[in-house]
Amino acid sequence: MPAAAKHQRNDALTETHPAMLGVERSARGHRWTERLQPGRAQIATAIAQAHGLPELLGRVLAARGAELQTAERYLDPSLKTLMPDPSSLQDMTRAAERFASAIVRGETVGIFGDYDVDGASCVALIERFLRAHGQSCLTYIPDRLTEGYGPSPEALTGLVEEGARLVLTVDCGTAGGEAIEAANRAGAEVIVLDHHQAGEALPDAFAVVNPNRQDDLSGQGHLAAAGVVFLFLVATAASLRRMGHQEGRAALDLLSLLDLVALATVCDVVPLKDANRAFVAKGLQVLRLRHNTGLRALADEARLGEAPSTYGLGFVLGPRINAGGRVGASGLGARLLATEDESEAASIAARLEGLNAQRKAIEDGMLAEATAMAEHALSGDPGLPLLFLGQPGWHKGLVGLVAGRLSERFQRPSFVMTVGDDGLATGSARSIPGVDLGTAVRGAVDEGLFAKGGGHTMAAGFSLRWDQKDAAAAFLTETLASAVAASSVNRTLDIDGALSAGGATMALAGLLDRAGPYGPGHPRPRFAFPAHRVTRARGFGNGHFRCTLLAADGGRIESCAFRIAGTPLGELLMNAEGQRLHVAGHLRRSAWQGRESVELMIEDAAPIQDLP
Q1: The whole model's pTM is what?
Q2: Could you tell me if 208 and 174 are in contact, meaning their C-beta atoms sit under 8 angstroms apart?
Q3: Residues 6+ apart with CB under 8 A from 530
Q4: Rounded CA gap, 113 and 305, in Å?
Q5: What pLDDT is stored for residue 359 in this prediction?
Q6: Which of 343, 229, 247, 257 has its CA nearest to residue 297?
Q7: Separation in Å, CA 478 to CA 197, 396, 488, 490
């Protein structure tokens, strides 16, 4: 975008939406703006009055798209009102009837699942469903390091050779045409249950249930794979009832499986809208009952003492389940989530805890190297629209995590790969809001620059010949530059309101919970704390920061920020002892020695003296 156009756009933005607290450029380079658009203030008031809510909660709901007529769905996201008809997904009825027939006839079923939390949850959902109908299955989880993502001909034909006549691929398979053809030739039928973006050509499977296939009109493309599998099980249960298979049997309560659906939905970072909100809200209620033997063992091993929350799913349980696929045995997560054996669950949970510690140590080393490479590249060209980094010896299972850290820190898409001795590089990419990675990666595949690739808007995986790296980087730069520039121009931090330290109470936290659960597409409320004094500032752990914020009236709130060492935000906070800053972040419940309190998770800050 030309410089003049950028200035005109910024001037227009400033005139129509003044920066909150006058913060035009914060430590993280953001312009602070009120999330609630002025034209929706009346809707916020109407919601608050109609539902007997404080004005603040009405503003939070209205800022996330709630209308007077739909606010109840936000306050109580129920499956009754939000779950779609499973048959609205293309191929769903065909797939469910085939699976039901396999159960009735006692056919051997094989499951090929991805190695991440979503894939492991899908496998566990189907295993538990089959177990409730008196059947077992064959399961195959590929090794992330040696086999990579998606089904291979060898893996699927191996399941067929073991006796499977029906094979389900879960959280993968849409791009597995060669493997599915091999399974067909071996005498099996394949059902794909997936959610990844799809091209025009689909594999020759018995059924491809994927709300992101181009001819699917269900509007459910936001579902995680576990959400797709849950709908598949609902449809299968209906088919079994029509066949009379449920007569005389105790039916499985499918709602009892929603803890797994919630786990996958949060960990796969899909938008928390419509059915996903209901899956997570009801799944957290199921999780409180601690019915799932594996999840219970893992929570105990991780010393997760707080009430179930999206934070606990995404930042405590999820990384431990993923650790098996990243640095250990890929099948550990699925085994843990499917088992009902207390001893096995405790053993797997302990092993995952150890693997997660190992993962952290390796990731820290890789991140330090990658950060140094990124800083060197940006020192030569600060306007680089993306980072494209590779190194022999980097751990294949951790490149995605490192890419995510770089994308967050440097505010641009990041492609991180490990280079093998054979000259083949395997990597992952993470994006920033407004920049579609999935389409760009598929374009690189079509151009012959990536050997393989695919993914979502915000994340993708790929492989390429290392001698093609310059051409691939040039193509991606040309493809994404304008979107990255637009994202940079519009880099704002949306804020739901201003608070003082004394107002950040447990009562307020409970009130905000009513509008949850929060996640992508339904962001956690963020508040500004104007002119609060920073006291007791200190660093801790691996680049983390903690302090106490003191308001002018004497109110105080404990505050912390993670992984900010060496960043502009970290430098501002670490040198702010005794100074007043505008600070922005979200509230989080904290439990210590049986006492609950509220702390502020700092996301940004701005020095008062630098503001106009």
Answers
A1: 0.88
A2: yes
A3: 21, 498, 500, 582
A4: 30
A5: 92
A6: 343
A7: 22, 27, 16, 20
